[in-house]
């Protein structure tokens, strides 16, 4: 018999699925893309214009944005430029969608910061393949496990182990550890961690971060693995395998 806590754990999603934002004003095209990406296993969020896109980006923290070239309030190219200039979107991959097949436009799209460029019409299979290729290049599909001493995080298998022993983490602790391990040696304030791990405009107190850091350290159990998650007094937290200073 499983107790209620164990049951709750089983019901938690085992994968943090890749989240994709579709920015396209034409609803039938947007819905068609959303349908196929959903079927391919992605979590899909949608925006009909640039303003909605920026709200969704801040709230949902997608891994990749599909940005149509022709949008009502700003061109997709301008949106891509704006997003790539903003450090908050440093990890966001962008694929531009366009009906234009001109080489000039393709170059402009890529120079604007897009990671790839797809010309309409495209097949769902081609779109999914291009998305996977971009995510792999961006390091968002991690085949390589993250390793810090005896601590291993295998994002592909969604497993964390210390000294070869598997550790079970709640979804938030897993996301927090994954974020910290992919951004080592940098100090993040509680507000920054809330933005990057929980998503902006999530109205929770900064102390919540401390609670999850405590749980994460406790779950890691082994003293040395705990020490990688360092408190930097007055500043926040840092993942580091170097001695705390
Ligand atoms: Ca459009």
Features:
alpha/beta; elongated; five-stranded parallel β-sheet; binds calcium ion; disordered N terminus; Rossmann fold; four-stranded antiparallel β-sheet; Arc Repressor Mutant, subunit A; 245 residues
Would you mind describing this structure in some detail?
- It is a single chain.
- Helix content is about 45%, strand content about 20%.
- Helix 7 (about 170-180) packs across helix 8 and helix 7 crosses helix 9 (about 205-220).
- The chain has helices spanning about 5-10, 25-40, 50-60, 75-85, 105-110, 125-140, 170-180, 190-200, 205-220, 225; strands at about 20-25, 45, 65-70, 95-100, 115-120, 145-150, 150-155, 160, 165, 185-190, 230, 235-240.
- The strands form three sheets. A five-stranded parallel sheet has the order 2-1-3-4-5, sandwiched between helices. Strands 6-7-8-9 form a four-stranded antiparallel sheet, with helices on one face.
- The N and C termini lie far apart (about 45 Å).
- The protein folds into two domains: about 20-140, 3-Layer(aba) Sandwich (Rossmann fold); about 145-240, Winged helix-like DNA-binding domain superfamily/Winged helix DNA-binding domain (Arc Repressor Mutant, subunit A, Orthogonal Bundle), CATH 1.10.10.10.
- The model is unreliable at about 1-15 (pLDDT under 50).
- The longest helix is centred in the middle third of the chain and has 15 residues, at about 125-140.
- The chain is of the alpha/beta class and about 240 residues long.
- Bound molecules: calcium ion.
């Amino acid at each position: 018999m499983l107790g209620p806590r164990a049951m709750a754990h089983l019901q938690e999603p085992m994968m943090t699925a890749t989240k994709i934002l579709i920015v396209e004003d034409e609803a039938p095209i947007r819905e068609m893309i959303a349908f196929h990406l959903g079927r391919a296993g992605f979590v899909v969020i949608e925006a009909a214009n640039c303003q909605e896109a920026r709200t969704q980006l801040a709230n949902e923290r997608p891994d990749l944005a599909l940005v149509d070239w022709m949008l009502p309030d700003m061109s997709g190219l301008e949106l891509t430029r704006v997003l790539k200039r903003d450090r908050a979107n440093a990890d966001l991959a962008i694929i531009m969608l366009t009906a234009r097949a001109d080489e000039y436009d393709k170059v402009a799209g890529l120079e604007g910061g897009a990671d790839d460029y797809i010309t309409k019409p495209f097949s769902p299979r081609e779109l999914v393949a291009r998305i996977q290729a971009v995510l792999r290049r961006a390091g968002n599909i991690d085949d390589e496990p993250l390793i810090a001493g005896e601590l291993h995080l295998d994002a592909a298998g969604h497993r964390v182990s210390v000294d070869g022993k598997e550790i079970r983490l709640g979804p938030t602790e897993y996301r927090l550890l994954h974020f910290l391990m992919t951004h080592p040696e940098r100090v993040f304030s509680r507000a920054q961690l809330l933005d990057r791990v929980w998503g902006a405009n999530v109205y929770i107190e900064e102390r919540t971060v401390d609670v999850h850091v405590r749980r994460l350290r406790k779950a890691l159990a082994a003293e040395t693995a705990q020490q990688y998650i360092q408190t930097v007094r007055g500043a926040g937290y840092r993942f580091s395998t170097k001695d705390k200073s």
